[in-house]
Write a sequence for this structure.
């Protein structure tokens, strides 16, 4: 196991929570292990592990980018992660307002729908 992988798993668990990471690890197969290693080292062990900006800011950027590019499947996971990153519900709404202006109202509207559903599930 590389240092980047170990760091990535630590950060991934901090942001997404042990339960999420444990489920992902349990579902990993020989087919997707190389991909899982890549995202653990690159996304979590390099980008998310950098202290250049806060986890709150990374969380907000990630949500904006997911909404802006229409990658809606990942939004609920990253909404749940806000409980660990410090991004508030108000922060998330500001992010999606920004998305509406710069990337389109339909994308922001769908992201807000997903955020509302996920925040309601979180309690």
């Amino acid at each position: 196991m590389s240092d980047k992988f170990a760091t990535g798993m630590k950060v991934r668990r901090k942001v997404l929570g042990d339960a999420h990471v444990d489920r992902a690890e349990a579902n990993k197969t020989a087919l997707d292990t190389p991909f899982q290693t890549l995202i653990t080292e690159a996304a979590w062990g390099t980008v998310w592990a950098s202290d250049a900006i806060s986890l709150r800011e990374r969380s907000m950027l990630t949500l904006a980018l997911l909404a802006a590019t229409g990658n809606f499947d990942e939004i609920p996971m990253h909404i749940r992660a806000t409980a660990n990153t410090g991004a508030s519900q108000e922060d998330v709404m500001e992010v999606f307002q920004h998305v509406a202006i710069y990337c389109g109202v339909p994308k922001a509207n769908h992201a807000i729908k997903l955020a509302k559903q996920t925040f309601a599930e979180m309690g």
Q: What stands out?
A: Helices lie at 3-16, 18-27, 33-47, 55-68, 75-85, 89-103, 105-122.
